[in-house]
Amino acid sequence: MNEIVIDKKEELVMKLLHYFITERGYNPVIIRGVKDEIWLENLDDDYKIIRIVSGYIHNNEQFKFDIFKTESLLKTIKKKTLSFKINALSIFVNLGDNVDISEFEDTPNIKFANIHDADDLNKYRFVTSAFPDITNDMDFKEKGLELFMKITSDINKKNEGDAKMNEDVFRPKKPVITYALIAINVVIYILSLFNDSILQMFAVNRFYIVELNQYYRLFTGIFLHANLLHLLFNMYALYVIGMQLESFLGKWKYLAVYLLSGLGGSMLSIFFSNNFSVGASGAIFGLMGALLYFGYHYRVYLDSVVKSQIIPLIVINLFIGFTVSGIDNWAHIGGLVGGILSCMAVGVKYKSSKFEMINGAIMYLIFIGFIGYMVFVRGL
Question: Which of 218, 328, 356, 357 has the most CB atoms at less than 10 Å from its CB?
Fold first, then answer.
């Protein structure tokens, strides 16, 4: 049986794909109209976009057009993924001798590498610094059809693993904690109808918390509501937002975010106001902040939802809070900040690193600690 021979350039492209997909977690990007090149995306790596270009480019004019096309597509990806900055690495395996890529080294946010084999990658310091193991991981003992089968098998296993993780995260789960929180709020509201003193005894208020050391009010106030309309509005929002976020984060992470967001809202409320404050809206704003943070990590799947629903919902509600009297918008802002930071601290499954979670916890403690210092120590 004759051995199947794979073209050297095709073999190089296969090895690059194997490395970036299986070792670095990149995923293919479908871009209409693009030929003879493969786009890979990993929004958590140094280079968010990797281009493997096999099409022949024979002079600098064609190379300039390639840069123009790449920059246009990067702008589209930047908007779609809500990214502030996109660094791209273009790897060319079929450049003509008349192309001098050194003339284009100053192109913003795009680096270029011209290679004929894996060892050529070592010529580019920006490649080896970002991917120090790339040449070693592209050294295969298999050849021909055996190499093709191994690379195909490894990539398929990686894709199957990613699919299982995404299914685990996005599979609907029963929102037990959300139901429990709604039940608690409703029961406490019914009790307050028969006992008017409950609101005064447990509402968030600077004097009672700071002067009388009734710290429990920082949490109890988020389970109280002034009237039936207030309760219904907040419980509907909690149901819609909470059932999604609980499914994404898991029960206990979700509960932690809810309570820590409520604490953030209560703290910022007593910092700016001496009035009584009640309601779950600060904690609910925290859930919106956490959903925004979660959506950022999974923006490949949720970018349209984040841009068309979550962000407008936050902006509109904050605007209403500043224009309508009787709304404690500082509690909303405190809850929003607390939700983002607490979600960062508890982590997003399969996405957050320990370093990122530790930073989130530290930032949340700084946020709460600074307000606490200003209120309880400085008395401002």
Answer: 328
Alpha carbon 11 to its chain centroid, in Å, reads 35
Cα of 13 vs its chain's centroid, Å: 30
User: Phi and psi (nearest 5°) for 231?
Assistant: -65, -50
Ordered by start, the domain boundaries in the chain are 8-169, 172-377
* pLDDT at 329 > cutoff 80: yes
pLDDT at 380 over 50: yes
Residue 69 has pLDDT above 80, yes or no: yes
- Quote the pLDDT of residue 143: 83
Q: pTM for the complete prediction? A: 0.82
98-146 confidence digits (pLDDT tens)? 999 989 988 999 999 999 999 999 999 999 999 999 999 999 888 878 8
Q: What number of H helices and E strands is found in the chain?
A: 16, 5
CA angle (72, 10, 16) in 5-degree steps? 65
281 has catalytic annotation: yes
Model confidence pLDDT, tens digit, residues 43-53? 888 899 999 99
Find out whether 257 and 342 touch, Cβ atoms under 8 Å: yes
Amino acid (1-letter code) at residue 259: L
Assigned token pair, 223? 């389970």
Out of 54, 281, 342, 352, the active site residue is: 281
In the chain, the percentage of residues whose pLDDT exceeds 70 is 97
Cα separation values, 205 from 33, 54, 182, 222, 374, Å = 61, 66, 23, 12, 16
Does 102 participate in catalysis according to the annotation?
Answer: no
Which residue among the candidates 269, 332, 342, 352 is catalytic per the annotation?
A: 332
Q: Which one-letter DSSP state was computed for residue 119? A: G
Picking from 292, 294, 297, the residue whose alpha carbon sits closest to that of residue 310 is 292
Tell me how far apart the alpha carbons of residues 354 and 306 are, in angstroms, rounded to a whole number. 25
pLDDT of residue 5: 57
The CATH code of domain 172-377 reads 1.20.1540.10
**C-beta separation of 4 from 144 below 8 A:** yes
- pLDDT score of 30: 73
Instruction: Say if residue 376 is exposed, middle or buried (CB neighbours under 10 Å; 0-12, 13-18, 19+).
Output: middle
DSSP state letter for 277: B
